[in-house]
Design a protein that fits this description.
A hairpin with a 3-residue loop joins strand 1 and strand 2. The chain has a single domain, classed as 2-Layer Sandwich (HIT family, subunit A), CATH 3.30.428.10. Helix 2 crosses helix 4. It has 148 residues and is α+β, with helices and mostly antiparallel strands. The longest helix is centred in the middle third of the chain and has 22 residues. Strands 1-2-3-5-4 form a five-stranded antiparallel beta sheet.
Length: 148
């Protein structure tokens, strides 16, 4: 069975993922393909497991610690009002965190980002251009480096 997260990690390792930001001990930081929420970032676990409890204890603690570092870097880089953290796995079961910078009025009604229609979340207009992506990656990398 194919794993989209493993495929993305393989792209990172092969130098072919344009959204790659940084490699940490337990995972990879990438910008989301679509930026309906500017600064949307993912943290992809290096181990292919479906549940947090499947990770060895010390790796799990480090993975959670690094996720909070990624979130803090996102917060400082993109200055949201609030962050939403999600570890869902309903579509791609490989552990990966979604970190959404949220701002007042960024959705028609308060609630999770997933209440928006998929077509809006992944609209062509929300894809990053090369210049904007390069700038966002550099900004997020700088913030991550401050926390290490």
């Amino acid at each position: 069975m194919s794993c989209l997260v493993c495929e993305r990690i393989a792209m990172i390792r092969g130098g072919a993922n344009p959204h790659f930001v940084a490699e940490l001990d337990t995972g990879y930081v990438v910008l989301g393909d679509h930026q309906r929420f500017r600064g949307y970032t993912l943290f992809l676990c290096k181990q292919h497991v479906n549940e947090l409890h499947e990770l060895e204890h010390s790796f799990k603690l480090r993975f959670l610690e690094e996720m909070t570092q990624v979130a803090e870097a996102v917060y400082h880089a993109f200055a949201p009002d609030k962050l939403n953290y999600e570890l869902l796995g309903n579509g791609d079961t490989h552990l990966h965190w979604h970190i959404f910078p949220r701002r007042a009025g960024d959705t028609p009604q308060p609630g999770p980002v997933w209440w928006l229609p998929w077509e809006e979340m992944c609209a062509e207009s929300t894809k990053l251009g090369d210049e904007d992506r390069t700038e966002m990656i550099a900004l997020l990398r700088r913030e991550l480096e401050k926390l290490r």
